[in-house]
Amino acid sequence: MTIVPVQARPLPADGQVHTMIATDIAGYSSPRRDHEIRQHLRNAMYGMLSDALTGSGIPWEACYWQDEGDGALVLVP
Fold this sequence. Notes:
Layout: E1 19-24, H1 35-55, E2 64-67, E3 71-76
Antiparallel strand pairs: 1-3, 2-3
């Protein structure tokens, strides 16, 4: 499954408690990595996040997330 983030959902501001997941792709900006490799790494990261959450019974669509370029910040309701 390939997930390319288009637009993040706005973060909730209603005081609810959420689990926060932060990711980072190590060495993302290395000069040895071109745009194609970086895009592959981002797609792989989002695929793993989605698979891990779905496997835990949490649909990706229910999460709030913010793309950080070389990582992501995900709030799980």
